[in-house]
From TrEMBL:
<comment type="pathway">
    <text>Amino-acid biosynthesis; L-tryptophan biosynthesis; L-tryptophan from chorismate: step 4/5.</text>
</comment>
<keyword id="KW-0822">Tryptophan biosynthesis</keyword>
<dbReference type="InterPro" id="IPR045186">
    <property type="entry name" value="Indole-3-glycerol_P_synth"/>
</dbReference>
<keyword id="KW-0028">Amino-acid biosynthesis</keyword>
<dbReference type="InterPro" id="IPR013785">
    <property type="entry name" value="Aldolase_TIM"/>
</dbReference>
<comment type="similarity">
    <text>Belongs to the TrpC family.</text>
</comment>
<keyword id="KW-0057">Aromatic amino acid biosynthesis</keyword>
<keyword id="KW-0210">Decarboxylase</keyword>
<keyword id="KW-0456">Lyase</keyword>
<dbReference type="InterPro" id="IPR011060">
    <property type="entry name" value="RibuloseP-bd_barrel"/>
</dbReference>
<dbReference type="GO" id="GO:0000162">
    <property type="term" value="P:L-tryptophan biosynthetic process"/>
</dbReference>
<dbReference type="Pfam" id="PF00218">
    <property type="entry name" value="IGPS"/>
</dbReference>
<protein>
    <recommendedName>
        <fullName>Indole-3-glycerol phosphate synthase</fullName>
        <ecNumber>4.1.1.48</ecNumber>
    </recommendedName>
</protein>
<dbReference type="InterPro" id="IPR013798">
    <property type="entry name" value="Indole-3-glycerol_P_synth_dom"/>
</dbReference>
<feature type="domain" description="Indole-3-glycerol phosphate synthase">
    <location>
        <begin position="4"/>
        <end position="259"/>
    </location>
</feature>
<dbReference type="InterPro" id="IPR001468">
    <property type="entry name" value="Indole-3-GlycerolPSynthase_CS"/>
</dbReference>
<dbReference type="GO" id="GO:0004640">
    <property type="term" value="F:phosphoribosylanthranilate isomerase activity"/>
</dbReference>
């Protein structure tokens, strides 16, 4: 069993516990009552042809299977406000409980605190989670190609779009990029961390990003330690970066995001 398989077993068990408390019908009512989803595609620069900026997706993550405890984050709402003030375009809230220490309560707290699009970051393996995301104010969900069949990728994307949300489709190999493109993904992430082994290989980004159609928003995921890594991803074709650890473990995340955006814009100016 890979790390990913193992995580998904826990994700399903936790989802079944929640489903016993909140039925799908109840979630649908809550989703219908929620404010409409915000446009994460536009926030990430999707429709604009120039794309001279590097967008930042700033993540709220307490711990991870690869790194253990990262930050206690007693007040996710205040961290989210710092992220938004620093110029993040989207905030990623990791809601997976067992391995990452997150929850839907974090998503609720962040939703109440900021007006920019939110990514519900989790291991989506069931439609129930997509309804949950919308009911709790998410605007964007993550679909991990390695965890899904083509049929699931298509169905889950279609449902997300029906609910007004966008989808970040995460890939790690050439074959997964082909599958993401076949599913008409327009926000495509390359995770340089292999979810089956947890190894990080930053050089993977440049080789895979070139395979993604230019109409898509290309997101470099994982492994940003500092401005040099940001420049590396921007030079390699990233339109956006998804950063967790470097921000949750920084005393001044607001300044850090501004620094990453400046490094990204400088590298993109050279690229263009
Ligand atoms: O903390 P990092 O190295 O900046 O990584 C953030 C993000 O890419 C990572 O949390 C992530 C990418 N894909 C995932 C899927 C599930 C859980 C977590 C992730």
């Amino acid at each position: 069993m890979t790390v990913l398989d193992d995580i998904i077993v826990g994700v399903r068990e936790d989802m079944e516990s929640r489903r016993r408390l909140v039925s799908l019908a109840e979630l649908k009512d809550r989703a219908a009552a929620a404010a409409p989803a915000l446009d994460a595609w536009t926030a990430l620069g999707g429709p604009s042809p120039s794309r001279d900026e590097l967008k930042v997706i700033a993540e709220i993550k307490r711990r991870s299977p690869s790194k253990g405890d990262l930050a206690s984050i007693a007040d996710p709402a205040s961290l989210a406000v710092q992220y938004a003030d620093g110029g993040a375009s989207v905030i990623s809230v990791l809601t997976e409980q067992r391995r990452f220490g997150g929850s839907l309560a974090d998503l609720d707290a962040v939703r109440a605190a900021v007006g920019i699009p939110l990514l519900r970051k989790d291991f989506t393996v069931d439609e129930y989670q997509i309804w949950e995301a919308r009911a709790h104010g998410a605007d964007l969900i993550l679909l991990i190609v390695a965890a899904l069949s083509d049929a699931q990728l298509n169905e889950f994307s279609a449902l997300s779009h029906e609910l007004g949300m966008n989808v970040l489709v995460e890939t790690h190999t050439e074959e997964e990029i082909e599958r993401a493109v076949a599913a008409q993904a327009r926000i495509i992430g390359v995770n340089v961390r292999n979810l089956k082994t947890l190894d990080v290989d930053r050089s993977l980004f440049g080789s895979l990003a070139g395979l993604i159609p230019a109409e898509a928003v290309i997101v470099a995921e994982s492994g940003v330690r500092g401005a040099d890594d940001v420049s590396h991803y921007a030079a390699g074709g990233a339109n956006a970066i998804l950063v967790g650890e470097a921000l949750v473990s920084d005393a001044t995340p607001r300044e850090r995001i501004a620094e990453f955006k400046a490094a990204g814009a400088a590298a993109i100016a050279v690229r263009n």
